[in-house]
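User: I'm new to structure prediction. If I give you an amino acid sequence, what do you actually give back? Let's try with this one:
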Amino acid sequence: MSRFFTDVRETLLPRPGGRHGPLPPLLVGLTVVTGLVDAFSYLVLGHVFVANMTGNVVFLGFALVGTPGFSIAASLVALVTFWLGALVGGRIGARLGQHRGRLLATAASLQAAFVVVAVILAAVSGRPVSAGFRYPLIVSLALAMGVQNATARKLAVPDLTTTVLTLTITGIAADSTVAGGQGSSTGRRVVSVSSMLVGALVGAVFVLHVAIALPLVTALVVLVAVAGGARLLGRGDADWVRP
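Assistant: Good question. You get back a string of structure tokens that encode the predicted 3D arrangement of the chain. For your 243 residues, that looks like this:
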């Protein structure tokens, strides 16, 4: 149990000189962003995700057989624009990947720019969101999340992919002492799952009870904090900035 809490603490408050420096808590912040934007997209834009593409592939299958409430166009737009965002994120990673601080700062700043567009669209769209605003919102948010996923992949901090939790949850069980494993990284994995849950919970509360744009505003604040933190903490030549 002490190992679990140590893992949680070192994920949220890494020790100075750690291999990944401040990247774990910054990526936890991006995981919260995932929960926020997917809560917005699913609850406001219909049955579509802008971050979790596995869900969109399944939704596309539902839509292809005419299941009510699912849209072929919405799923395809999300998938294609996410792919384009990941392509942009990959180019950024290829150019800045030798300095992980600059990479994360640049990628998070670009994400924030896309989310600013989404905040403006959500603020003027009204409720319910019309088709004229729905697809621009899907495009701007899916582009942002594609950039995020490509960046997290390039940073390669174990168990902090920021969106894909299936393998993370599998690891909690499969690597547990009950399953004959050593329980390694359980604390970090639980933090990852919990942070997305918190983001989704907060996003849903905002959408249902406050204002539909508020999850995106919150995500924007987190992204600005991540970009600023990565830029500030990535100054110099600390070991963690090197891949």
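You can read the tokens as a compact description of the fold. Here is one thing that stands out. The chain has one domain: 7-12+21-231.
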